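Box S2. Input/output pair 1.
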Amino acid sequence: MARPWRVAVVGGGIAGLAAAVQLRDRAPDGTEIIVYEQSGALGGKLRTGELAGQPVEFGAESFLMRDPAGGESAAVALVRRLGLADRIVHPTVGRAALALAGRLRPIPGGTLVGVPGDLATVTTVARPDAAADRDEGRPLLGPDGDVSVGALVRSRFGDEVVDRLVDPMLGGVYAGRADDLSLVTTMPALARAARVEHTLVGAVRAAQAAAPRAPGAPVFGTLAGGLGTLVEAAARASGATLRRNAAVRELHPTPAGWRLTVGPTRDAEQVEVDAVVLAVPARPAARLLAGPVPELADTVGGLDYASVALVTLALPEPELPELSGFLVPSTEGLLIKASTFFTTKWGHLRRPDGLALVRASVGRYGEETSLQRTDEDLAATVHRELSAVLGVPLPAPVDGHVQRWGGALPQYTPGHADRVAAARAALRAGHPTLALAGAAYDGVGIPVCVRSGATAADEIITALEGSAR
């Protein structure tokens, strides 16, 4: 009789936890799953804390409800699997604005991450160059091509659409620049359409038509009580042995699977497993790959990251517009790049005493020196800049929190998807019981990371089933 499988998941973020849940659901009974997390907390960039006596997100705040094809997103599917569907709540205010020239202007609707399918809709914030989007008799993008989002949009719509609309929207997600970020990785639906369509307007419209959204259907959701409940429920449902403060330092292949070196050098633990899901950021993944597959370490470790700080202020009865928040183009010269009015956006967070929770995101790729300020300086600067953008002096905060996320947001340069595909193909050929998962490979956002983790688990199960024959 074959012995039960033993699988290690390295990384206790949402991708790693999703992998563990999928393994529990699909692997044979008796499979032992061990999750190793270097820090003391599971969940990665999902972190629910408390401010002014109520739960508040110090990391990711929401998830997309639908997947790119229009179906239920992987995050929603996991929420249902964990029995938390009744906790899903949606924004009560969805309108957001751009901070431009000292005033807030509504973000035009109907765009694809700021890229318009109708140029007339964005004239309130930018002057598009309509004449540049000519049909030149061939698709915008070759069959295997990739370009930066900024390069494509600038060449077709001009600089203002990028600088005033696309760049701040991508910056809000990636803390990066449209001119550096891969179209294929950050906007895959538009990239697919661009391989067929001859104009950017046509490509945007085709991408939107391929994933229609029912009128009034919510785009985003979160969980009442905080996304920490998703982390806790996934950890429980996985039935895994959870090893916090357990750094995996080395990874070596063995005739039967893998040997992990865990813990400090002077008191290292050697652990034998049949398979490994590697769900950590690119650089620690590269260090672990350097032993068994050194030819992949440089490829995986070449991914760069941006650092950000999230400054949350509890303000007594401030004058806030009826907006979910606003984005700030880098050309405006402000430290903050985005702000969310939590207690306006999310009705379930509103308080009868009028206390408002406002969060600002600070830090853009290449501007890490701005994060070298003290927490007090960051909070004071955010308070001052929020007051300037809103045009009214905000009251002094009664509480505050600064969450720093060093090296948190991957910067996907053109060709990223091909590099990842090649790395995974090499692993399947040479080491099929080692799988990669997480934002370093497949994109940011809770649904993408959940799907990435589940897919990695499926690959491990397929490999182990094959080796048992």
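Box S3. Input/output pair 2.
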Amino acid sequence: MKHNVYEDTTATLEKGHAYPRYLTITVFVAALGGLLFGYDQGVMSGAVTFIGHTFQMSSGLLGFISGCIPLGAMVGCLVAGYLADRIGRKIMMFVSAILFALSGVGCAVAPSVAILIASRLIGGLGIGMVSTLVPLYIAEISPKQVRGKMVGSYQLAVASGIFVVYLVNALIANTHSIAWNQDIGWRMMFLAGIIPGILFFALLFMIPESPRFLVSKNQEERAKEIMGKVSYDSEQTINNEVKEIKSTVQEEGATGGFLKELLKKGTRMALFIAVMCSVFQQLTGVSAVAYYAPVIFKNAGAGTGAAMIETVLIGLVKVIFVAFFMGMIDKLGRKRLLKWGGYGMAACMLLLAFCFDQTSMAKMFDIFIIALIIIHTSIFEMSWGGGAWVLISEMFPNKIRGRASSIASFALWGATYLVTQLFPVMLDKLGSVWTFVVFGIFCIAMGMFIQFFFNETAGKSLEEIQEDSKK
């Protein structure tokens, strides 16, 4: 029966009707959390140009405010993982939506640096929660044949949020005077973020709790009902899957506490791979490019207005190539995309280093620099951008998935903070050339890591992945 169901689903995929409408709506609503993530992460790229004037901040303090998001996110993901395993994924997504809205309002009306920092930290808490919860939730509710694509929709939403905020930033910055932007404009950039936050909160009422969480809380019938709505599987197939989930939950529960389960042979290796992939995702240099894109473009010869517009182009590229990622992740598999993505980004970084070294042909190489940043961004979005979140969401046992995923997310946000804080220092101390050489070396290392340590997970149920990890 399982074989026939898989064939039926594969055939359905080829016809373009891969999954029920209920699954599409559920994943769309959950993925909106990624839109908030992208918006809040990218808003500083526009505000940073003007915000220092209002409070007369030093560059160091301005850098710290930029880094408040990953700092808050490190705490948020740990809190979310623990509570998600206790009270559910959906409730914690509601909490993250509230934090997003509060952060936007707080930043917009901040009368002092202290309030601005506190508001940014609150936004970071929300981002940390949503970055842990949304991929986890989507992975648990999606049929295995399209799980990668569905989790990829989260990265699409992140990229869309970044594109939207880049567009908002550019419109505000280029349609008003510098004085207005320094006084009011940057506040409007933050305030606009409450709109998607309120929308996310309202739409969450439409979606169900994760079936796997429900099974872990002995609510099998409710879980079966939801699984029937999100897949074309027969009643018998769903019953068998629920039994398999329940069996793994009971087995995990019999092994002892969280730490003992986490340190078991298969889970220990899964944690190692997830944490390394989380850190590697940031060592691609993508966060540095995202936060400092206008600065990089200005250093490459663009004016302030042109740099903002070119940053919008980066945002559009992200959206387009995440869509490609969603189409390929379940067909080509995780391993192939991540491995070659690492090598491709390494080539871009090393070529960027070469271009920044060519001072005698500056204008020509300015164009190459912009092109290489766009290509690097494209490769990232087709591989590690969504790929790391897919791996984190599917590698851990049911009973501890929330908490284990939060550890990997914590590592990702820790790496994000270090990269965003060290990138300007690296540019200053090492220069552009060696900064990009360092990132290029990291990209080579991540391609090799995937090649030697990671086993393919595409097309397998979450329970099958756990069984494979024990071998």
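Caption for Box S3: Confidence is low (pLDDT under 50) at residues 1-17. Residues 21-55 form the longest helix (35 residues).
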